[in-house]
Fold each of these.
Amino acid sequence: MARVDDPLGLLPYETLRGQPLAVVLAPGQGVGFAWEGGSLAIPTADPTAVVARVADHDPRWVWWLARETALPLLEAGVRPRTCWDLGAVARLLWAVRREEPDAVWAAAHGLPIPAPEVRRPAMHGGPSLFELLDQDESNEGPIGPAGMLTRPWVNGFWAADPHAAQQWAELALQVQQIQATQLATLADPRAEPRQPPLPLLTALSESAAALLAVELGLYGLPLHIPTAEGLLRDIVGERPRDPAHEQALRQVRDDAVLQHAPGDAIDLRSPAQVRALLGSVGLTLPDTRSWRLEPHAATSPLVAALLTWRKAERVATTYGYSWLDRCVEAGETGGRLRGEWRASDGAGGRMTASAGLHNLPTELRSAVRADPDFTFVRADLGQIEPRVLAAVSGDQALAAAAREEDMYAPVAAALRCDRPTAKVAVLAAMYGQTSGAAGAALRDMDRAYPTAMAYLRSAEAAGREGRDLRTYGGRLLPLQAVVAHAELPQGAYGRFARNAVIQGAAAELFKAWAATVRDGLHQLGGRSGAQIVLCLHDELLIHVPSEHVDAAVEVLETSLAATTRWWAAGSGVRFVAEIATGPDWASAH
DNA sequence: TTCCCAACGTA
DNA sequence: CGTACGTTGGGAAT
């Protein structure tokens, strides 16, 4: 084992910039690198310090999973600029449900995806290195007889020493090269040859989104705890002192409804009991959903009280004091709401977040407040889905409409109807209408925008027939597997696919924009500077030092222009962002 | 204890 | 008009 004292002499620095460089951290042991043409093991007690020095040369970091490799780097203050996330790209290319290296490796080599390992009870956080060494296979290397990654390596044997990390980095680079090759085969040969192909660019932005997801989890959403407490007091009342007090307060809330109800007290949280109660006062309904109750609120004090109760109960249970205590951490500069972020979940390919980050009721949003000397800059993409439809389908007429600030106005003119009807018709077309509300306008859609409608219809047919599809950016929609295990009627998969090609492509555009914004914000104040703190499907919230607000607005606008230049190249579709600033989320509108 | 459903918040 | 996801509580299945 050659000891390496000067790592800065051994990497091909002059050619690193922008080039794939696989990195594997072996905490406390060292770091392994692999690039096209070589690999290296560097023993060091502080691997992140070595990575920080290499980062100055701005390679494209290749890692198995951002959560694993980028997290310790970010915690050590290293902000990687660009990356290639093997898990994220595997999801894009092969729709793997699991992003762990064993699944990614198997998918890359056309092998069956191994089942997830059954985790033993986390008494001591998984197997120790000793236990891993004990297992037979550990001396056999990372690849087993069937060509699969061996269990000890998947479980972390690569962290045993820098040479193991080096081998693991070499395998990462191999997978990266397989992914790059397959992405190239997806490219549209008719596309503009001077720019990188769309699937490759999508892979890069999906990778960046995976990194951003780690940053979002680490940074947290600034939330002013006293403001949140005040809002909760207004909506659900005082903070319970103990479980008995909580029970008493709950009873008070319930009684406000039950006083309007005849007979014995029922459990308002039980839909069946509520339905029976409503039946006893002459309201026979198929279910007790609020939109179904709404029409009766004016005539029934019971229904009115119940709807009010539901609203408060939602906040009390999901976004109440226990949520505040569990999910919001008090910090030096301000509270932080933290959840787990995923860069691309489910059929939609959207980002997801836990801890209520994606479904915070609007009335609580004024508690999302910037730190002192910081300001929020909020931006959202207007009418993103119909614009995406115009771009991905290549419908010239719809693209012409999408060049307007409000694209429903020209659509209404083309359909010879009013704007609200035009909007309903477009949405019904994209998501597969079931009721005949927009019938006439829909037929006019077929006449006015045949290319867009054909695109949607072909996606719907693929869904019904169980044929795999890819989104505009190249993300696999594994309809064959889904429909093979079908539990729902065929029409459901038709609607599902019709929606997935639009929602999915919109998610890809959004992430590409977010990745560009993230990169652009790097220049604004360094580590304690501007930071994306929330991604909400078509909306970005940025926490910015107040002196950089104008610059941040500029970054948002130039990033959108730069992103749509390649994403919607040649389509003639315009994408518009509405941008506002304010000290809290509610006021930044 | 585990799983599904109803309900509802967001986009 | 419809889709997606996360969270909660009840209630049935295990």
Note: The longest helix of chain A spans residues 490-521.
Amino acid sequence: MPELPEVEGVVQALKPKMEGRTIQQVQLSEVIRFSFGEGKQCIVKQAEPDAFEMSLTQMTITKIERRAKYIFFHMRKENVPYVLVSHLGMTGAWFVVNSPEEINEAKFQKHIHATFKMADGGFLIYSDIRRFGELRFLEKIEDHTPLTKMAPEPFDEIACDYFIAQSKLPKYENKSVKEVIMDGQVISGCGNIYATEALFAQKIHPARKMNRISEKRKRALFEAIVTVLRQSINAGGSTISDYRNINGEAGSMQNRLQMYGKKMCPVCDTATSQMTIGGRTSVFCPNCQH
DNA sequence: GCGAGTTACCGGTGGC
DNA sequence: TGCCACCGGTAACTC
């Protein structure tokens, strides 16, 4: 499950290997083609498979950057800029290899969905087991509304004030804190794992209503989120089930998690509780978090 | 036009 | 061994 720190790791690894290179040929999987024929948008969004392949052919990757949990591949063809937006969903992974056979994990090998053959040799490959990821080819970011509504990067100095302001809006003030901090229009890139960790660190119950938290506590919570995201980036991300970096390696943050996926509270040894908030599983310590 | 709520997208995993 | 419910980030759709 790649979250912001995992995506950051992917981007940092992709940058030196892919920036400046030109795509010679693109090939989408049969699954994508078949799904499109069925009227579905499997991985490739708002484009016909043929048109998507053609659009990216002869495109030069100028810059790769992360925004929330999205990867932006900025590109250029005949001096016109474009961008390929990638989201890894639950199980997406990028690989930079000399040949597709180099992907040695069977389940990633089996679910290769986009193969980019580079003009100077080698391949950039997108694999996605559960196909929750997306590839979206745009002329500019503004062409896709959800991307324009995203909160600032959590490391941006205005991000905390932005969070405070958003949290006071009518549509958020009566919601649970966990739902609000996981909303990309409030804080960007805070998924279930890191929301769970930050709430535990601040001893806040995930179901507590936003308007029952003081501004001081909200600021402390925001800092806790930033801290846990930074820690995880430094640890190479959390490898929960299927995350791999572009070399197929796992991260180590999962070993440092205090609450996500835990049966016992590491502070007071009470059995943890679980409830569904905003449709997502939430783990917390009923003794420590109020 | 906007917001709230619902559905779609999936295969690996683990429990029985 | 085999079946089946469960899981989840985001967009798109409906109301």
Note: Strands of chain A lie at 23-28, 60-67, 70-77, 80-87, 92-97, 112-118, 123-128, 134-138, 273-277, 280-284.
